Amino acid sequence: MGFSKPKGTYDLLPSESGKWGYVEHLFREVCRVHNFKEVRTPMFEASNLYHRAAGETSDVVSKETYDFEDRGGRSVTLRPEGTAGVVRSFVENKLYVNQAVQKMFYMGPMFRYERQQKGRYRQHIQFGVEAFGSDDAMLDVEIIAMAHFMIDVAGVRNTKVKINSLGGEECRAAYREALITYLSGCKDELCEDCQARYERNPLRILDCKRDSGSRALAEAPKIIDYLTSDERKFFDDVRKGLASLDVPYEYDANLVRGFDYYTNTIFEIQADIPGFGAQSTLCGGGRYNKLVEELGGPSTPAIGFGMGLERLMLALEAEGVDVPSINKLDVFFVAMGSKAKMELAGIMAEVRGVGISCDMDYSDRKLKSKLKLADDSGARYRIVVGDDEIESGRLNLYDMKLDVEEEVPLLNLPITLYERIEANMELEGTFDEMRAGEMNLGDITLKIVEADLELANQFDFEDDEQD
After folding, report:
1. Whole-prediction pTM value?
2. What range defines the domain where residue 19 resides?
3. Whose C-alpha in 30, 166, 276, 286 is 20 to 30 A from the C-alpha of 356?
4. Residues 302 and 347 in one domain
């Protein structure tokens, strides 16, 4: 009897996980420089949290949530998105007591029971940010620009930023009536789902992928014409702010997003890559100024976005981006003999102590097989250690990339390896700058890591040099 993964899920294997780790590291660094701090919430919540926050008429709630009853008879739901749980945590932990803007980010699995297709899974990894406590248009600008920057620095260059405004309650009520009146004359042209949405929540019709190119929607009234003067000014300020930061964007009158909690500014970032497919939305978000209050907190303006990492990785692949891996091995040791194997345990502990990754072969294979394992490991350096090397205190350090070998003292091996790897990182960073024509976040992050390593070890190195 064999087992296979559940439908709509996937295994992220070690050969690919390092690339994901690299992108996740970049995103964490972007959050750090924007002063966003991580929040981690449960992967399941009370069902009514999602039903109330996202809206009963949204496709996610009506068709896609994993709802079940636990052993205590409570109705719980695997989280389909991140915002509701973060807002619940914000309210429950009374984070609103701090009058400063609260900036948070999250990263983790979400669950939606939907038809599996490329870039869309029943379990997917979502990265998202939420900012609470400010109704300033420049915060909207920062959030949109941050999302655009993240996707760009990851390597996806061909994107479209689309924005719209849904206004507030007064605006939406007036627009809803106008949309119902208009659609009453062409309801038969809509798909079955949209005919049902007509009765329950007609704004959802604008978000329909099947009817998006229809004549009916093309000629439908636009919500921007129903914005109040203050809402229009706010939206104009957002557009001016994006222009001032050179963030390219398009106004999309039919953009509504898939959840009922959105108000005012909403946006999507789509991949504009030939042949990428229908699932082109990489990121989406907007304001939700009423949600905190609806979930039991004080009136608190808020804005955020969510991004599916699976779709982002597919976009990077479609653009031919060679994503680096954080799983790179620095040194592979080849032990020849039981004595050398015993000594290597201590040697590797010292090497790892200065932040250098290393491994060894624990088998009793012959030298040729061990050397092949070293080649297959992807390590930059190979060191063969036998009884003779242990007794002499001298090792041969082989650079497998440059095909160069040098003899180094065993006593100073951690320092020697650190210096070689640091020099290689600086050289490769210089090549990156030359190719890109400028420093990118990856280079900056690399230099930060280098500086941290140098700071952590400089005193030990100085003492060794004096000795």
Report:
1. 0.83
2. 14-167+227-318
3. 30
4. no
Q: Which helix (H) or strand (E) holds 108?
A: strand 102-111
246 and 116 fall within a common domain: yes
Asked if residue 30 lies in contact with residue 95, where contact means CB atoms within 8 angstroms, the answer is: no
Q: Domain holding 427: CATH number?
A: 3.40.50.800
Q: Considering only CA atoms, which of 244, 184, 181, 254 is closest in space to residue 213?
A: 254
Cα torsion 334, 337, 338, 340: sign: negative
Q: Find where tokens 């909403």 sit.
A: 266
How far is the C-alpha of 326 from the C-alpha of 23, rounded, in Å?
9
pLDDT in tens, 11-46: 999 999 999 999 999 999 999 999 999 999 999 999
Structure tokens at 409: 């003292």
Look at residue 217 and tell me if it is in a domain.
no
Is the domain of 388 the same as that of 285? no
Task: Quick: pLDDT tens for 346-389.
Answer: 999 999 999 999 999 888 889 999 999 999 999 999 999 998 89
- Establish how many alpha carbons lie within 13 A of residue 344's alpha carbon, considering only the half-sphere containing its beta carbon: 23
- Domain-located, residue 219: no
> Are both 370 and 262 inside the same structural domain?
no
- Pair (312, 392) in one structural domain: no
Q: How many separate domains does the chain show?
A: 2
Q: Which residue has tokens 């030359």? A: 434
Q: Clarify whether residues 252 and 336 are in a common domain.
A: no
For residue 90, what is the enclosing H or E element? helix 83-92
How many other C-beta atoms can be found within 10 angstroms of the C-beta atom of residue 44? 18
What residues does 263 pair with on adjacent strands? 287
Strand, coil or helix: 440: coil
Does some domain include residue 240?
A: yes
How far is the C-alpha of 139 from the C-alpha of 277, rounded, in Å? Answer: 32
Strand order in the sheet with 358-360: 358-360, 331-336, 381-386, 394-399, 404-409
3-state secondary structure of 265: strand
